[in-house]
Specification:
This is Putative integral membrane protein. Keywords: Cell membrane, Coiled coil, Membrane, Transmembrane, Transmembrane helix. The chain crosses the membrane at residues 46-68. Residues 46-101 form the Lipopolysaccharide assembly protein A domain. InterPro entries: LapA_dom. There is one protein chain. This protein has 116 residues and is mainly alpha-helical. It has a domain at 2-72. It is built from five helices and two strands. It has helices at residues 2-22, 34-40, 50-72, 74-101, 107-115; strands at residues 26-30, 45-49. The longest helix has 28 residues, at 74-101.
Length: 116
């Protein structure tokens, strides 16, 4: 199974390298469209290889997706934490009730009942 995973990683790496080699041409990235750049009196731009733009866009999309999903699951995480606190509280209460039940009894018998 481990070799299958390594094979998939290798195929993915070869695909990324081939995309990078096929798209080495420089492209100009601008912050604003040229029509709006006159309103702000500045339009910074940068020259990057196309594969950097493609891979950067994929990484940015993954990052946005991960953050979006983390925010979306907040309610589920909060509910799980609430249930865990409630379970710990109930376990402490059970231990307290068992201790009250065995109060005044022989310690050996109380331990045997507690174990079962």
């Amino acid at each position: 199974m481990r070799y299958v995973r390594y094979l998939c990683i290798a195929i993915f790496a070869v695909a990324l390298i081939s995309v990078a080699l096929a798209n080495r041409g420089l492209v100009s990235l601008q912050v604003l469209p040229t029509e709006l750049s006159g309103l702000f009196a500045m339009n910074p731009s940068i020259q990057l290889p196309l594969f950097v733009v493609i891979l950067g866009s994929i990484l940015a999309g993954l990052l946005v997706g991960f953050v979006w999903e983390w925010i979306r699951e907040y309610g589920e995480r909060a509910e799980a934490a609430k249930q865990a606190r409630e379970m710990r509280r109930l376990q402490r209460e059970i231990e307290k009730l068992k201790a009250e039940k065995h109060q005044g009894k022989d310690e050996a018998l109380a331990l045997l009942e507690k174990a079962s």
